[in-house]
Amino acid sequence: DDKTLFVGTEAGPAFYNLQTGKSNIFKGISTMGINAPLEYVRAGIPDRNGKYFWMGTVGLGLMRYDRTTGNFKNFSRITKPKLLDDGITNLLQLADGNLFLIGFGKPLIFNTSNFTNISAYNDTSAIFKLKGVSSICYDGKSHIWLSTNAGKFYEYDPIANKLTDRTNLLNSFKELNEIHDIAFQNNRFYLATDAGLIILQPNAKPLI
Questions:
Q1: What would the pLDDT profile of 70-115 be if each residue is shown by its tens digit?
Q2: In terms of pLDDT, which residue wins out, 191 or 205?
Q3: Residues whose CB is less than 8 angstroms from the CB of residue 93 and which lie 6 or more positions away in sequence, other chains included
Q4: pTM, to two decimals
């Protein structure tokens, strides 16, 4: 949504309309299991049809904000179905409309229709065995890339459910121990690491 600026804060979510200049600021509360704005918002994305805005919080669960009604619906370890890893720091929408989440550093897939989820608790796929995931992003091929606090770098194909370790792309950076954040733009990856900013371009020598 290029008309709305979303800001996640410790006090709750806020939306700013870039066209009208009006703000919609919600005061969150630190209580799980209720359908209301929450505190400690870390991430958020709109769905493709623009009706819902999904937000992740630190330890309070996943929020769905209905922009047509103004209602919230929340999901956490105490709701049914349960969302056990409810410390949501990153989220992306998959091609089928479901959400790819990072909860307490672990990947999971959240079904936006029936609110169930696939994770290490009920699936043995390689993607759900990852821990310490620090950031995720899409590339130009609709593959998801993941970084970890231990300096690992992975490529995930959600259609084939295939995880590939791409840490070898960073072998020239001997001082690298942690990757804090990643982004993809203009056919380049940008990695914020403890060794500095690293720029990766497919089939090209890494820059730092």
A1: 999 999 999 999 999 999 999 999 999 999 999 999 999 999 999 9
A2: 191
A3: 45, 47, 48, 54, 99, 100
A4: 0.93
Distance separating alpha carbons of residues 112 and 157, to the nearest angstrom = 20
Q: In degrees rounded to 5, what are phi and psi of residue 105?
A: 80, 5
CA distances to 6, 43, 108 from 40, in Å: 14, 10, 20
Say if CB 90 and CB 135 are below 8 A apart: yes
Q: pLDDT at residue 204 above 60?
A: no
Whether the CB-CB separation of 182 and 147 falls below 8 Å is answered with: yes
The residue behind tokens 């600021």 is 25
Q: How many CA atoms lie within 13 A of 50 on its CB side?
A: 5
Buried b (16+ CB within 10 A) or exposed e, 106-126: bbbbbeeeebebbbbeeeeee
Cα 52 to chain centroid distance, Å, stands at 16
**Contact status, residue 56 vs residue 101, Cβ threshold 8 Å:** yes
| pLDDT at 65 (0 to 100) | 97
Dihedral sign of CA atoms 66, 70, 73, 74 in order: positive
CA distances from 36 to 17, 97, 113, 194 (A): 21, 23, 20, 37
Least confident residue range of 118-122, 178-182, 202-206 = 202-206
